[in-house]
Amino acid sequence: MYLSDMHTHSIASGHGTSCTISDMAKSASRKGLKLLGITDHGPATLAAGTASYFRSLTYSPRKRFNVELLYGIELNILDVNGKVDLEQELLEKLDYSIASIHAQNFHPASKEENTKAFLNVMKNPMVKILGHIDNTQYPVDYDAVVKAAGENGVLLEMNEASLASYGYRGDTRSNCAEILRCCRKYLVPIVLSSDSHGAEHIGDFTYAADFVHQAMFPEGLILNNQIPKLKMILSMR
Asked: pTM for this structure?
């Protein structure tokens, strides 16, 4: 069993759930998690959290139902220069950020352009996780991106919603295998992420955990149970 889930979405993400943060924490507690990251979609996602929502998160309780909470955001990468959809002043008030490409804000581009977008967004010290870079619509130079992630203290995720049977990013297994190969090569840690929209899939890493174990990926590079180390990486500026 893994003890943390750092990529989840509440009702504030604007789609997929009506669950509040309290609902999410209650579910995490029932499932035995010790650390939960709330990372609602940034303002460029239709109907998602506004700047004022993310500002208010900094005043939210840090523990609910005996689960420690970190408050972050899943940023939308907007262009190849790594521009994102929340002002730096607000990003610096949050605990951490996940940076992801979503089709509504960044149309599928060349491998070179997609890679450049990820390389540039990692220059932002608040970006601590790259989200679902396994997406088959967005070819990426994984060797270059993972190497840069290691140099910038950024984690890669194995996204349950990408590998699960209900996933919608295509058959991501070969991309995920390449990500793991590069993470092993450069000793870059990963996190297993549910990408749960709502409480149902919080802490559910059924497909992601099976995939990394089948790949014989070193358990020491999976940070979900190494909570002090995980929190230290997320808090580094």
From this structure: 0.95
